[in-house]
């Protein structure tokens, strides 16, 4: 925590993600989303790294209005410190801008896109006297496979919640506690139902910090990247309107895994004794499920192409 001295009075300012609760992270995301439109565009382009449109960034930088930026800086400082708004309003503008660039920018960019100061990839964390462990990876034929021992439900539920949350006014932080409760679990505990994770997530509220959530997203991103490499046909957009329609009808949509889970359950090819078809799929090995789904998608695409050639 930074200590700022203003007019002989000390105030606190957050210094790291480990100090910022998820509740505060949601408030910060909402405020950061109110940034001047041109600034939001600049940050979005910068998040693309080498693919950023530098010419457009320069154009947008020239369009920025300093008074609007200063107002935004004040709003962010108000969220990330205990400095009264009346005191913030009287801060020297040069000092305000320096404070934003050196102490606030990385938080704003982090909630809007990703932490520029890196992510602490946690293998576990402790809460309420319990240890919550991240999914394990395993090397197979020289390639690391994240979520190796996880079931379908962990990946699909966390991914769908992440996608849904990003469309809300709280962004990726909307379902933060629940995503953590799904991905991080106590030793030897298998995730089965979202209702069970919700109970744990309720305990996390107002306590867990953003660094833990960022780590959870990092683990999810790692398995996303690996599955994309292994099963690219499940992650690319369909080629044309007809194939998109065929993909949609088969349950293989570009976003939202629940329809895909239902489709495989209806086929009953992963059925296990004592479980319903849906439970059998949700509790199945993630990589086995993706193999079945990928083969189904490939066959669906092939059938569509074959029909089009016959016309």
Observed structural traits:
mainly alpha; 6 strands; globular; two-stranded antiparallel ribbon; 8% strand; single chain
- β-strand percent reads 5-15%
Spatial strand order of the main sheet: 1-2
- What is the averaged pLDDT score? 90
Helix- and strand-based class? mainly alpha
Q: How many extended strands?
A: 6
Characterization of the model:
- This protein is mainly α.
- It has three domains: 111 residues, no CATH class; 107 residues, no CATH class; 70 residues, no CATH class.
- A two-stranded antiparallel sheet has the order 1-2. The protein has a two-stranded antiparallel sheet with strand order 3-4. The protein has a two-stranded antiparallel ribbon with strand order 5-6.
- About 5% of the residues have low confidence.
Helix/strand layout:
Elements: E1 2-6, E2 9-13, H1 22-32, H2 37-46, H3 54-63, H4 66-79, H5 85-89, H6 93-112, E3 124-127, E4 130-133, E5 138-140, E6 143-145, H7 152-165, H8 176-183, H9 194-204, H10 210-230, H11 241-249, H12 258-267, H13 277-282, H14 286-310
Antiparallel strand pairs: 1-2, 3-4, 5-6
Helix pairs in contact: 1-4, 1-6, 2-3, 4-6, 7-8, 8-9, 8-10, 11-14
Concise summary:
With 311 residues, the chain is mainly α. It has 3 domains: 2-112, no CATH class; 124-230, no CATH class; 241-310, no CATH class.
């Amino acid at each position: 925590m930074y200590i700022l001295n203003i007019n002989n009075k000390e105030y606190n300012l957050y210094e790291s993600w480990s100090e910022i609760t998820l509740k505060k992270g949601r408030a910060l995301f909402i405020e950061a989303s109110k940034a001047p439109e041109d600034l939001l565009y600049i940050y979005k382009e910068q998040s693309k790294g080498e693919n950023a449109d530098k010419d457009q960034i320069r154009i947008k930088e020239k369009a920025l209005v300093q008074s609007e930026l200063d107002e935004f800086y004040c709003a962010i400082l108000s969220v990330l410190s205990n400095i009264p708004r009346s005191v913030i309003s009287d801060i020297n503008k040069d000092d305000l801008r320096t404070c934003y660039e050196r102490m606030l920018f990385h938080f704003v960019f982090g909630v809007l896109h990703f932490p520029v100061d890196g992510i602490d990839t946690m293998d576990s964390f402790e809460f309420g006297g319990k240890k919550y462990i991240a999914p394990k990876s395993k090397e197979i034929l020289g390639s690391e496979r994240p979520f190796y021992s996880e079931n379908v439900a962990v990946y699909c539920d966390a991914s769908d919640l992440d996608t849904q949350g990003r469309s809300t006014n709280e962004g990726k932080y909307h379902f933060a506690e629940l995503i953590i409760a799904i991905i991080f679990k106590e030793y030897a505990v298998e995730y089965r139902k979202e209702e069970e994770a919700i109970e744990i997530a309720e305990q996390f509220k107002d306590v867990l910090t953003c660094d833990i959530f960022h780590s959870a997203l990092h683990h999810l991103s790692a398995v996303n990247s690996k599955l994309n490499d292994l099963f690219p046909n499940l992650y690319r957009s369909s080629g044309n309107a007809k194939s998109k329609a065929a993909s949609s009808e088969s349950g293989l949509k570009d976003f939202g895994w629940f329809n895909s889970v239902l489709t495989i359950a209806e086929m009953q090819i992963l059925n296990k004794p004592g479980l319903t078809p849906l439970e059998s799929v949700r509790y199945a090995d993630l990589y086995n499920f993706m193999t079945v789904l990928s083969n189904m998608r490939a066959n669906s695409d092939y059938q569509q192409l074959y029909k089009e050639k016959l016309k």
